[in-house]
Write the structure tokens for this entry.
Amino acid sequence: MIYLLVLLGKVIIFISKTLNIGSGSTWPGHIAVETYKDFIKRELTRNKHLKIVLIAGTNGKTTTGKLIRTILEENGNKVFQNEAGANLLNGIASSLIKNSNLVGNIKFDYAIFEVDENTLSLVLDNLKPRALVLLNLFRDQLDRYGEVNIVANKWKESLEKIDIKTSLILNADDPKIAFLGNNKNNSFYFSVKGESFIQEHASDSTYCPRCGEKLSYERVTFSHLGNWKCKKCGLKRKKPDIENYESYPLPGIYNKYNTHAAILTARVLKIGESKIKNYLKKFKPAFGRQETIEYNGKNIQIFLSKNPASFNQSLQTINELKAKNVLFVLNDRIPDGLDVSWIWDVDFENYFKNFRSVSVSGDRVYDMALRLQYANNESRITYHELKIYEDLKEAIGKETKKLKAKEILYILPTYSAMLDLRKILTGKKLL
Amino acid sequence: MIQDTKYKLTIGWLYPELMSTYGDRGNINVLTKRCEWRGIRVDILNLSVGFDIKLLKNINLLFMGGAEDIQQQIVAKDFTVQKIKALKKKVEDGTPGLYICGALQFLGKYYKDASGTKIKGLGIFDLHTEHPGAYTKRFIGNIVTRSDLASPIVGFENHGGRTCLGDNLKPFGMVIKGFGNNGGDKTEGAIYKNSIGTYLHGPILPKNPQIADFLISKALILKYGAGVKIKKLEDSLEKKAHDYILQKIASFE
């Protein structure tokens, strides 16, 4: 049975690649799991040597995955990952098919799987990871994912029955994530030393995950992350296993969290400290996550910004990098969420005055323009002062042309906008 | 026409930390900026859990956003008999207000949640809301309605609860495209005196600035007398963003 499904899956991948109808990142797995619901379990029983790292959370999955992969590969391990966006059960099954030989044997040491928030419980029913990394839970596409609390409750249920051999790598600063830990010595906590005391508007879990009381924060790094405690029931942040590191491969507080999560995972996988440090130097950003692309002889840097927390972090980071020229690209397609209300939860007000040139594009260009019109503290930006481009290609062309030689155009796109953007930028290179 | 600082409005924001999801905060931004652009000073007063009802006295405009179930339960506990009485008086006196989604449900007699638990409402609006259960369809998507205040109104709805209006309560709008209160009778939200309850996120005010101006204007009249008129603003971006939703919906027909 299993041979047949692997074979069938491989045939589908081959056909879809040949006919150029996609890379087969979900269909083969979909068919395998539909035909034989224990496909993943059986395939993994046959490949007991394969260690799995699962990563879930609203923001930072891709970067953290790439950090862990870099460390493992530099360490000489063979690693594969599920493809971008294929983070449901069918994506994981497809990835297993793709990376096994014709008889279902997998010649890799590690698999790193990004998992969708709503799918984590189902995935944990099908496989036992060596490490489970839970990064954070932020407000994101409420029309698709529903309420943050519902997701957290589902996770809590699954983690109560998790195997003791699975190491949990948890964000100590995110109350709902930290609360998922247990006392069985398999929970490890990461944090980030921070100094801010102001909470951003888009904060979600400022209530005690145990008793519902409002939490007190000694300090906040961003959004609802920080050193928290409940004055009513006494629940408080666990002592972190890592909260600081000597150097980081990427700027931004959010990337400190991602880096700490990756380091803690590497430690659990028994990789030595000095090795981790050296391997991290080899890291290159994942696409769209602070990736720099040259276009028309000018530099563009892309900061994927897909929900209030990630958008605020992008704004803060480019502000620290002294960004002057900024382009926001807002789409409302399925991967972005059909509802763009969330842009009103982003704190543009804090950064606006530092930018010299602000332009907007994307399917919902006028919604973004409108948001910025109401974000300007000094005076009302008029229709003409803000550069509005219905056409993304025109936006990139004109905005890069005006840059001085060493200047960077910082582009903050939503997910599908980022894909469009890369197509324009890298497509041009090929021609 | 007013263009000086002799006018000042205090906006009371009910439970900003708890009742604010789907960008509801944008409504506060819009009310504030549209006052400031006209030279009207604005104070935002946060009315959080445990707030003193004496604060309500000086408030000229009320706003309350939507929330997740757990947060609604925390807020429900904060509505004491006295607090309900004080809020009811504000509404009856004609204080303009905007109540989004969960807040609209709160204004009614009761809300029966997905598990069947009945949460008592404030009983200020003659309406009630029932959630038919976790496995029934949520009403999600772009919505267009018409009303006397602004037409067409555009927004985004996302709710599981079905609201039914009592005989004497007027809907805020009638659905042209979308679901509205219950997906059946075409009504959307409710309007009573100067209080507007609606399911429209988006948020509602940026793309429908006439509603913001209605609230501001009513607040000024109530405070300073019937002669006060507000200056018109140039709303070309508002209109462009508004019309995009209409086009998008038309292209799916």
